[in-house]
Amino acid sequence: MDAIIKPFRESAQRKVLPKTERPSREEAEQAVSTLLRWIGEDVGREGLIDTPSRVAKAYLEMFSGYDEDPQEALGRTFEEVGGYDDMVLVKDIAFHSHCEHHMVPIIGKAHVAYLPDGRVLGLSKIARTVEIFARRLQTQENMTAQIAQTIDEALAPRGVAVMIEAEHMCMAMRGIRKQGSTTTTTCFTGQFRHEASEQVNFMTLLRFGKE
C-alpha cells in the first residue's frame, strides 16, 4: 500500500515558480495584447485600450493561490477539544478555479471532513485551503488530492475525506458544449480510505438536509 500511496502523493505536488523567475507585469500585458491581435481584434480601439492591464490585474487575483502556502494557512491547531473525536465536516464550500488545459472556469463546491486525533482546525482554515488551491490552474482530480493531502500532513488526523462537485466550462463553452453536467471526485486518507463504514458516514452527512 505504501508503494501505491507514495507516487499518488508525489503526483499531486506542483512546482510553483518563485517571483524572481516570473515574467514582468509589462510582459504579461504584452502577452494579452498579442492574444487579442491573434484573434483578430484591434487593440487600439477604445474598449480594449486598458484590457491588457485589466486582465493582468484580474489574473493576480484569480491566481493568487500561487503566492500562498496552504501549510501556513493550516499552521495553527487547537488541542482543547473536550474529548471530541467524531467527524468534523465542512460542506458546500463554493469555489471558482480554472482548468489547466484551456484556462476556462471550473465552478463547484467542495466538501471536506476529517477524524480528529487530539487536535482540530479552525473551520475557516479548511475553506481557506480550498480557496488557495482553487486559485491555481487545476484539474479537479489533482485539486481534490491536494486538499486531502495538505490537511492530512498538517493535522495528522485519523483520516481525511474530500469530495468536489463541479461544472467545467471547457465542456460547456467549447468542444461537446454540454451545459449543466457535473463531475464528482473524491479522495480519502486513513480510516476513510480503509474503513467503508467511515465513507458511508461521510456520504450520509453530505446528503443530510438535501432531501
What structural keywords apply?
two-stranded antiparallel sheet, 9 helices, single chain, alpha+beta, disordered N terminus, about 210 residues
Describe this structure in words.
- There is one protein chain.
- The protein is of the alpha+beta class.
- Helices cover 42% and strands 22% of the residues.
- It is built from nine helices and seven strands; from the N terminus they run ααααββββαβαβαβαα.
- β2 and β3 form a beta hairpin.
- α2 (25-38) crosses α3 (51-62) and α5 (123-134) runs antiparallel to α6.
- It starts with a helix and ends with a helix.
- The relative contact order is 0.13.
- Residues 1-8 have low confidence and may be disordered.
Short description:
It is built from nine helices and seven strands.
- Amount of beta strand: 15-25%
Largest sheet: 5 strands, mixed
The residue fraction in helices comes out at: 40-55%
Which structural class should the secondary elements be placed in? alpha+beta
Largest beta sheet: what is the strand line-up?
A: 5-2-3-6-7
**Low-confidence runs of at least 5 consecutive residues:** 1-8
Number of strands: 7
**Rg calc:** 20 Å
Q: H/E element string?
A: HHHHEEEEHEHEHEHH
Distance between the termini: 37 Å
Shape, please?
elongated
Mean pLDDT: 91
Task: Count the DSSP helices.
Answer: 9
List the helices and strands and how they pair.
Blueprint: H1 2-11, H2 25-38, H3 51-62, H4 70-73, E1 77-78, E2 88-99, E3 105-115, E4 120-121, H5 123-134, E5 137-138, H6 140-155, E6 159-168, H7 169-172, E7 183-189, H8 190-194, H9 196-207
Parallel strand pairs: 2-5
Antiparallel strand pairs: 1-4, 2-3, 3-6, 6-7
